[in-house]
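Can you give me the bound-state structure? Components:
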Amino acid sequence: MATLKDIGAELGLSPATVSRALNGFPEVSARTRAKVLETAERLGYRPNRVAQRLVTGRSGMVGMIVRIRPDMSADQTFFEVVAGLSAELAARDTDLVLAVDRGDDPVAAYRRMLERDILDGFILNAPVPDDPRVAFLQTAGVPFVMHGQTAREVDYPFYGIDNRAVAGDAVDLLCALGHRRIALLNAEPRLAFARDREAGFRAAMRAAGNALPDIFVHASAAIPGAGYAPAIGWLSGQAGPRPTAIVCSSTLLAADVLRAAADLGLPVPAGLSIIAHDDAQPGLRAAELAPPLTVTHAPLRDACAPLAEALIAHIGGAPARALQRCDRAELIARASTGRVPQGGEAPWSSTGP
Amino acid sequence: MATLKDIGAELGLSPATVSRALNGFPEVSARTRAKVLETAERLGYRPNRVAQRLVTGRSGMVGMIVRIRPDMSADQTFFEVVAGLSAELAARDTDLVLAVDRGDDPVAAYRRMLERDILDGFILNAPVPDDPRVAFLQTAGVPFVMHGQTAREVDYPFYGIDNRAVAGDAVDLLCALGHRRIALLNAEPRLAFARDREAGFRAAMRAAGNALPDIFVHASAAIPGAGYAPAIGWLSGQAGPRPTAIVCSSTLLAADVLRAAADLGLPVPAGLSIIAHDDAQPGLRAAELAPPLTVTHAPLRDACAPLAEALIAHIGGAPARALQRCDRAELIARASTGRVPQGGEAPWSSTGP
DNA sequence: CTGAAAGCGCTTACAG
DNA sequence: CTGAAAGCGCTTACAG
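Here's the bound-state model for the whole set.
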């Protein structure tokens, strides 16, 4: 492999000048730069990144640790995000070093990775309120970017969508269609985004003057079919009045609800409106369900470039506060939402909170 | 961060001696070594791996490139293997650098990764016959280990299971139960392991004196429900005599076949025997299906340690031929296989090859 | 058993 | 505009 020295030897230049020419320093003469570039090209020169890293103190690698619980099936979210991040980071000359953690301690894997290796930073996903990883990495002085946020006001870089608005927009649309008994089929409550959606749901329901349902059902989208049982519970009407609309935290859960409605002979949207949040992951297209789903639409893959960008900027010294971005998901009305059915206009029993 | 120099300064030793003490060189005196270890511990010394790598020429990173087709849903296989490999490599002080490739050229991603970075080697998965990655990496002189094999005799390290035996053992079991009309629901034919299973199936059928079915159906386990339609095709009997047994390349496909049999009112195993290969991925437990599945059992996660081990040995200079291992999957008989039903003893029509 | 020295390939003040 | 030199933190022949 050709080195700076080799190029310099060919041209009678010092490695220092070759380095400057290659790295675009302005003081190098145009002729010298041209010769250096030509020779580098001809010799197939590739900078030795290990040497660069030793001298710059950067590794060019960022870590991502994915936690999986022992019996969880593959999480499509993970796949989609890792694929996108890997591409976006590669475009910025950065490697994604991946570790999978099955342990109990949420920070142990980070500590291990930091001890074993030089990493310039981390990408964190699946934030929970008071996420212990935040304190750990901030104390250690290690840059990171969060996919999502642990709270509304934080002092680290993040990228995500406005999850309060996700649920709020859904409720607003349904209220405009006359719905008052709206249920929320949410993700696991330990996740920050699920709490945000519940908060947005509550706020929008209150703003519309609607009573809240007695229970908020949570179901893991990682477990196939997890939305079916709660949907049957609601829609069979055994636990009180049926909702006329259900807000689902994912298209996967919405598909379960559709199946439950079909099994109960309840037409959508004539008897039940459904709206879901849509990550736009391959495998389940909201527009191709029967009926096509009304969704709040925010493709997961759109998060990858902002995350990579923010992390690399932060590693380069940009302040955290300048690297916080929260996009609004787009509301796309399709055929799964319609006017409230006749007789469905009554609110939830007023036992709601 | 403490360096070798810092430790040496504390003890009045040279960095060279500290290095030797830390790296277990035999010539260091026990007293010196003890003092060095104690001081290193106290100062929280961690070797700078970038520096180590610059001098040794090794990076301590191995790459894995996962190809995904644009619209494929998440492949559980990928998740399981990456999780296991990440752990096994970490235990050997090696990082897994992951890239995801959506392109057409099977070697382009490898070339890019080699140009951008120092990698000690690669882990390849999903081999196809005449896999172009093999020639590319061998020409480039880059070590790799294959999960599976591209042919019976190869000159690179690999770990996998005997896929001919997987299908052969299944056929043998079914033949012992009197079955003669056995069908194979195989994986995508471009994959080497699918070809091996077909070869094993054909060989075992011939050895048992059975005619072969006219068609071998392939279905991607990455597409949910992909096995249902072919199973209905066979079991409805419209395309000729029904098979009395079906060998499935995965438990996912077997679940589809079970569903098809149920929908047609065909009892298992009284009317149909089913045997599947079982990777033991979470999410679909062969023993918990109804009826519990007879399987050839070879957990994917068992492949991770041998793969990591072989790659690291090969990087360290061990010859490829010493790093080729093919394990036999374990046949586990459960309730989905039984004696051939009355009237099912006739062979396939003799139009088979 | 230990040290001084060279070197891995690069970057970057410091001179000129 | 270019070069000589120092240094990033480590390893490893070579001496002693």
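A couple of observations. Chain B touches chain A through 45 residues (CB under 8 Å). Chain B has three domains: 4-47, 61-161+301-327, 163-299.
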